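Final report, section 2: Outcomes. Of the targets proposed, Outer membrane protein assembly factor BamA is the one most frequently requested by collaborating groups, and we therefore present its record in full.
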Amino acid sequence: MRSRQIWYRCVRWFADSPVSRAMFYNGAVFLLALCFFPVPAGADQQPRVALFPLAVWADSDAAGPLSQQVLALVSENFEQTCGVSVTLYDEAASLFTPGEKQRAARAAQADFALWGGITSLGNSFSIDLSLLSADSGELRRFFGQGEDPGQLADAIRGLSSDMCAAVTGRKRIEQIVVQGSDRIEADAIVRVIRTREGEIYNREQLSEDLKHIYAMGYFEDVRVEAEDSARGKKIVFTVRERPTVGRITIHKYTVFSEEEIREELVIKRGAVLNIVEIQESVNRIEQLYKGKNYHNVKVSYEIQEEKNNQADVAFTIDRGDKFMVREIIFAGNSAYRDKELRKIIKTRKKGFFWWLTSSGDLNMDQLRQDVAMLSNHYHNSGYIDARIGDPEIEYLEERIRITFKIEEGQRFRVGIVDLQGDADEFRPELEKMLNITEEEFFNRSMVRADILSITGFYGDKGYFYADVIPDVRKNDADLTVDITYIVQKGGLVYFDDIIITGNTKTRDKVIRRELDVYEQELYSGSRLKKSVSRLHRLNYFETLKVDTVEGAEPDKVDLKIEVEEKPTGMFSFGGGYSSVESLFFTASVSQQNLFGRGQVLNLQGQIGGTSSEYRLSFTEPYLFDTRVSAGIDVYDWNVDADTYDRHTIGGSLRFGYPLFENTRLYLAYTYDVNEVDDVSIYAPWSIQEMAAQGGESVTSGASVSLVYDTRDNYMNPSRGTKSTIAIENAGGPLGGDVAFTKYTGETGWYHPLFWRFVGFAHAKGGYVHENSGGFLPDYDRFYLGGINSLRGFGWRDISVKETVEVWSSQTNSWQEVIVEEKGGDKFVQFNIELLCPLFDKKAGLVGVLFYDAGNVYDEGQELFDLRPRESAGFGIRWFSPMGPIRLERGYILDPRPGEDSGGRWEFTIGTAF
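The predicted structure is given below as tokens.
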């Protein structure tokens, strides 16, 4: 049939075509060969099927949609699965007889006619289709069914596959086989291909399947073969797997640790070897080094095949020399010299201490900040139109040149400054706030500061929605800038509800008492900020979120406080070696939020070589819900001094009250009983007299102190100050055997210096005198020396020494002999430290260089009658969870006979001064 049809078309083409006789003779042999020899179906054109409307036996409402659905599915499967072209007939053709349908198919030059019917009963269905050859009249029947409408598409797909084989004459795929895969399951490969058993053999689809298998990334080679079998085609996919990655080694790595480099690797051990991933790993390592300015870095790799289809990968790094910033150029600047601009930016040329200060390192983030700082400098100096371009970076033979291009523009002075809008009510107060009026030249930062000041002013008066819009107008004629602050205060806003959530242990009262704002009160921004700061200072919460949201009415806002609590109890124990205590052990149990009430309970004990101490303390921060804090301490203390032993048992009652911001007043009463024994003849006279009168004394004293503390961190501060003045009086109306008045003062200042360095300056001094009605024991006098005062000297080594001259027969000379060593009634102490975090600040490890000076003085001696003793040294501190751990070595700068100037190591766990 196919041969006759093609022959007929060829003859008709020759009859109708205006081909010349010469062309006919030249191409006759070729054309006749094409016409007489059969051409395989599908080589010259697609088979065509005339598809007639289907009869449907179902509910009347479902008949039409069901017929259209089946026709659409049949057409789609014919065209996509086996490349058969479909011609659809309208409803009128459904009444044709089989003979009429055959003739209609011929007229449409279709090869087959297809019709049939669908029966739907409930959820089940059946399909009966007839396929008639338009040429031979051969009729074939196809049948499908299902129990659920969801199976309709699968049933049509199966019928279409059967009919496709009949229409095209192509074979079905009987079997799909995967061979060569060891680690990858064959089912995983079959899932990614679209060819399925039972479908019509399609070479184009097999080509697509090859691509899909390659795309899995597991195989070096994939081949497909089609073999004829008794029932169709057998498809065989043969794969060769890529090896898996065994060991990954890195050679010649420096600058970064091996762990840091491994974090950049895309390729992983046990994964399939992938050259793309290896190359990506190479690129990432090179970018890591280039980020540290090793721009000539070269990373190579080698793959070593091993048994069991594994391969080891070795990366070798040749970092090259580091590129350093050697030139920083400013182009276009005339108002400021290069030297002045270099002080503004933080990027530095390589200096002598580059290994310590990182000068010469190129940091792109820092470079972007430098551009912003230069822009701010110009904009804050009157150059309102100044522009700083992106820095040009040139890599020149292992050196870096950076060029900042600057367009300065004209410099503008401050012109007329005015307030408009809702500013009239508070105009005098607002005008006093404006800092821009004090400036000669326009300063953008000052304008922003004025906006914040005005907004904060209105916010503290309840205008939550207050807004300030700056209207800045340049006058190019006289180079001035007029600034108008347009105030839009909005309406008064009140706090409505204060909602606290997330606290399961801490009581609402404990949180609310730290707030300086209240429900139904006018909104205040500054007092809200202070409240948040006080909540953070409690240190009860892992996270703290404070937000203001619209209330039930336009003039109300709700304050929402959401907290996530953290453990506030701590048990710690430890031990170590101290230059004061020798071997010591310490343990403590504390709860900073007892029963969720905010109370503090602490029990601690320490046993050492020269002392032991046990202390129990309790603090109520808000006594009777007032701002008065109260506390009680009970202690038992044994001290083994050089010339006597002392045992103290007692307690104290203390109160505190905040006077001002960061300033607190403390009052305390102390009562303790002291007992001395094992008193030697070299002990101070006050101790010997005490021992002669029974060895026991009672101290009853009161003290008042004022503390000002602005440190940003209590453990490891980097800025701020703490200052204390205190007066303590014992005896007199308070009773007891001991009578004295003691005055002490102390101040410590932290200030950030260059890079990460922090400077610390500390001074301390005191004076004590004996009162009538009692005596001043030596342990209440002043000593210096040791890790908490003057390092390099032994503990309490700096004291008042009473000497007499005696004749030595051995040396035949007079020699000074110490007959009494006691504490002074005055002392001064100075300490200067340079602190630097050794790693990340969060690690809490700090290096320190220090200089100490100070001395103690006896009665009748004025301060500095004696030259201060001096020492210097270095050390390391670790601000651990147990407290500061200090290891420091001090050297005496002015050694006296018998003193060791070679240095002294000191180690302790405790609180730094």
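Confidence is low (pLDDT under 50) at residues 1-44.
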